[in-house]
Specification:
14 strands; alpha+beta; 10 helices; four-stranded antiparallel sheet; about 20% strand; eight-stranded mixed sheet
Length: about 325
């Protein structure tokens, strides 16, 4: 089982918490987080709204089809996303910060823009806006603890998030499938860290702790599942390494909900390299070199790589590009 960390202990026993945080992120890149202060009623509200949205008819869901958004926002139909060139068996909504689009945007600046909200479920927008604020608070608190654990000032990452952070949320449903076992193919996340809310009693998430050695990660009551993204790997020169993970499609007749929150800095932010203490630097593995998946230090480049690969239909329709390389689920 993955480690369980209590964020409340960051106040009462910070040294122990930081030691456990560093160990979990170095050894597995994944852990459970309790003591985060998010009320259970808020979790229930988010899952309830997700159920109501996915119960809508196709016309009502496609009102906010991602094909209508040059910013990669909105509803992605079942099988409408790719990972490693294969179709993921899930449907989802992608939600980011609500901002005006940039005129004549080039490259990753096209990721800035408005969200698409379903008229049949007006409660979704205020609930997800409040959820983003809560998740950002938890994520930034964790990030500052990581900074201290790495021997840096707790505010070392603050500048990257001070102006217009480009967070991303997904509301995801995995229906059961006898034909396609790939809920989401093996991938890493492109941002800084991910806070994943998984429906109680469900299963399917797997983490690769060693090459081709996958473990099941079931939900834990009251906990978020946390993993680091590629930008923390860059920031720590590979001492913390983003870990591949995947989701298996449920068996026929069963479905699964999840709500991942990807904490990410401003699109043009360059993640600072944290000078590591000698004992940590000696154990750094370096940033993984994968020609099929280059990791960029500027967040927008990393996100643009992943979004255009995962949604080639949107990339071609709105931007006239066909992404090169393997698709990513982020």
């Amino acid at each position: 089982m993955l480690p369980v960390l209590d964020l409340a202990a960051a106040d009462s026993d910070p040294d122990t918490f930081r030691s456990e945080l560093l160990a979990a992120a170095h050894e597995s890149g994944f852990f459970y987080l309790v003591g985060h202060g998010v009320p259970e009623r808020k979790v229930d509200e988010i899952f309830g709204l997700a159920r109501r949205f996915f119960a809508l008819g196709d016309d009502e869901k496609n009102e906010i089809s991602q094909l209508k958004s040059p910013h990669f926002r909105g509803y992605s139909r079942l099988g409408g996303e790719l990972t490693n060139g294969a179709r993921d068996w899930r449907e989802q909504i992608d939600i980011g910060p609500e901002r005006e689009p940039i005129a004549d945007a080039v490259g990753y600046w096209n990721l800035q823009g408005p969200n698409l909200w379903p008229s049949a479920l007006p409660e979704l927008e205020p609930a997800m806006t409040a959820w983003e604020e809560k998740m950002s608070g938890v994520g930034l608190r964790l990030l500052r603890q990581w900074a201290r654990a790495l021997g840096a000032d707790e505010g070392v990452f603050d500048d990257a998030f001070a102006h217009r952070p480009a967070t991303l949320m997904k509301v995801v449903r995995y229906p059961g499938s006898a034909e396609n076992p790939q809920g989401v193919g093996a991938h890493k996340d492109s941002g800084v860290l991910t806070l994943l809310l998984v429906e109680p009693g469900s299963r399917g998430l797997q983490v690769e702790l060693a090459p081709n050695q996958w473990i099941d990660v079931p939900p834990l009551d009251g906990a978020f599942i946390v993993n680091i993204g590629e930008l923390l790997e860059v920031a720590t020169q590979g001492y913390l390494r983003a870990t591949r993970h995947r989701v298996l499609a449920p068996e026929p007749g069963v479905d699964r909900l999840s709500v991942p929150f990807f904490l990410s800095p401003a699109l043009d932010a360059v993640v600072p390299i944290v000078p590591l203490p000698e004992e940590l630097a000696a154990r750094s593995r370096g940033v993984e070199a994968d020609p099929d998946n280059p990791i960029f230090s500027t967040y927008g480049e990393n996100a643009w790589k992943s979004r255009t690969r995962a949604h080639p239909d949107v990339a071609e329709l709105h931007h006239g590009i066909m992404p090169a390389g393997k698709a990513s689920a982020y």
